[in-house]
From TrEMBL:
<dbReference type="GO" id="GO:0009225">
    <property type="term" value="P:nucleotide-sugar metabolic process"/>
</dbReference>
<dbReference type="Pfam" id="PF16363">
    <property type="entry name" value="GDP_Man_Dehyd"/>
</dbReference>
<keyword id="KW-0520">NAD</keyword>
<dbReference type="InterPro" id="IPR016040">
    <property type="entry name" value="NAD(P)-bd_dom"/>
</dbReference>
<dbReference type="GO" id="GO:0008460">
    <property type="term" value="F:dTDP-glucose 4,6-dehydratase activity"/>
</dbReference>
<keyword id="KW-0456">Lyase</keyword>
<dbReference type="InterPro" id="IPR005888">
    <property type="entry name" value="dTDP_Gluc_deHydtase"/>
</dbReference>
<feature type="domain" description="NAD(P)-binding">
    <location>
        <begin position="5"/>
        <end position="328"/>
    </location>
</feature>
<protein>
    <recommendedName>
        <fullName>dTDP-glucose 4,6-dehydratase</fullName>
        <ecNumber>4.2.1.46</ecNumber>
    </recommendedName>
</protein>
<dbReference type="InterPro" id="IPR036291">
    <property type="entry name" value="NAD(P)-bd_dom_sf"/>
</dbReference>
<comment type="similarity">
    <text>Belongs to the NAD(P)-dependent epimerase/dehydratase family. dTDP-glucose dehydratase subfamily.</text>
</comment>
Amino acid sequence: MKTYLVTGGSGFIGSNYIHYMFEKYQNNIHIINVDCLTYAGNPENLTAIENRSNYTFIKEDICNKDAIHEIFQKYDIDRVVHFAAESHVDRSIRNPQVFVSTNVMGTLNLLDAAKCAWETEEGYKEDKKYLQVSTDEVYGSLDDEGGYFYETTPLDPHSPYSASKASADMLVKSYIDTFHFPANITRCSNNYGAYQFPEKLIPLIINNALLGKKLPVYGDGKNVRDWLYVKDHAKAIDMVMEQGKPGEVYNVGGHNEKQNIEIVHLIIQTLSELLPENDSRREHLNQNLIQYVEDRKGHDRRYAIAPDKIKAEIGWEPETMFAEGIRLTIQWYLENQEWMAHVTSGDYQKYYAEMYK
């Protein structure tokens, strides 16, 4: 049985990854979820698996170096999947220090602990692997039309968030190059799906539209992102972990480029189709809710990932096109209004703060 250390497993992508892994491997793996439960970490994302005998939750901050080393001493970790990160660009503009602390120093602590636990006189213990989950934002911005991010594209981050993730990637690369550390880096496009915190575009628009609130759109709304369904991302991470060539970087993209304003219109349309005819919330669903707001500082114009390498070397490609994925996502939020209410009210934080104090 392989033991996985998953950092940030109570967050959006981390929790979806954990669900995917248990669906695939059942009782053949042990997952240790290390999460310090900031606002973005919600144990409600994992209530369906929290009582499994092969699941362990540890409330801890990756910035606590001693605690991270103790976890590696206590458990024989085979795999590290590092999701834990401060990830919201607007928050990074307001408070860059937190992003540097978590995303850079936290990553260094994790690398150091894994290296110490896995290193032998002959090299590293057999079948150990570390995977750094990164973002396409480290590449900077593309022109409105044409061009893609490749693994060879120079890093050119434009926000404190993306700069901190690029720095973390460089630390991982330095461990690979200097210490021959067994690691890979994946860089994904924008994820969407279940359990996403509603400060992000898609859940924010869904929730506001249902409540009849304004739908804020930055600038002219024509910023383009490549959207990746989170379950496809979870599958890619698993495949890179098991099949990726040591030391390699793999871009994980969805082939779903959309302008932000297109997404807003599509959400309004899809909600109109999914809500029952007698649902009073249908009254809110019109374009008048859209409100253009001042553009974000350093707002990158376009991201587009080329996943050619991961397809050629590993055989992964996105399976969920955006029209299908956004419908599944909206349906999930409609069926999980209590989860959304707990998140937007902050009740989940109060409950788990008491539980884990």
